[in-house]
Specification:
Elements: E1 4-10, H1 17-20, E2 29-35, H2 38-48, E3 53-57, H3 58-66, E4 72-81, E5 89-91, E6 106-109, H4 115-128, E7 136-139, H5 147-151, E8 160-163, H6 170-175, E9 181-182, E10 206-208, H7 213-224, E11 229-236, H8 237-242, H9 245-274, H10 283-287, H11 299-311, H12 321-324
Parallel strand pairs: 1-2, 1-3, 6-7, 6-9, 7-8
Antiparallel strand pairs: 3-11, 4-11, 5-9, 5-10
Helix pairs in contact: 3-11, 4-11
Amino acid sequence: MANLQLSLAITNNPRTRPIIDGHVKADGIDFIKTVLGPAEMFWRQLSFAEFDVSEISMSELMMIRSRGDDRFVGIPVFTTRRFYHTMMLVRQGAGITGPADLKRKRVGVPEYVQTAALWTRGVLENEFGVTPKDMTFFMERLPARSHAGAIGFAAPAGVTIDQIPPEKSIASMMLAGELDACMAYFGGSPGLIDRSTVDLANHSNIRPLFPDPTVEGIRYYKKTGIYPINHGMALKRVVFEREPWVVINILKAFNAANDIAEAERREHVAYHLETGLVPPDCRKPLATRLVNYGLKANRATLELAAKYSNQQGLTQRIMKMEELFAANVLDS
């Protein structure tokens, strides 16, 4: 019997590359692959449901499911994660020396509803006492090609979100002194959705919110045990209802790809350890695997994201994992 053909939208990173290059295949499935950046991918999928299988913003999946949009079922594959609050950038001269100084400041964000921004706001509020209402947000993506526009998002009560005009960008406004800080900024590679072209992280007039982002990431992880998740994976519900086995086989394939990426990471770690330049107390952490798929390993992180989403008014209730993910992988 011929394999089932499914269209797949996927980003390119070490954990997805074995799927992209065909080194790992999903049993019984032939993927028709489209490699995209997340901004364009999520807009196209949320607007038009173009792909059978796609990476998806976990924040936006929670939001649409809370509103009764059940076009997609989640698969517990989480391809990107970072300590997003440590990536915040501030303008020199804005009077910001730490998170508390963000109050009453102008903050740029590509997409208010994106998961990286959800995590950043959540940590600012719950770790440092700075709420979304304390800041004025300026969103770069225009309504016609934004995730917010695709799902009909409106600012929660008390939160101010202004639109950056088409002739400007987060980068141009930061450098002109029209913004004081920005979150979830991945500038430098403009495309169909984003238009900022400046590498702000390495600009002389811009610096990180936290003087040492790595130290802050370590502090947060040691305190919470949370390694924030950004992207998940989702399958069209019509496909799942017709072929429920697809979810299990996709999860198995991505687990295999993740194993390959982990093996490659360990090779790099071993090389650096052999140089003798790595302090002894770093050896065990470097050898520790932090990225695993499935709900068991990630439930606490996802449930915290769900709490943040409700706290910030993006969802009207705290979403349960059973509402987000396919029933046959809830015990994965």
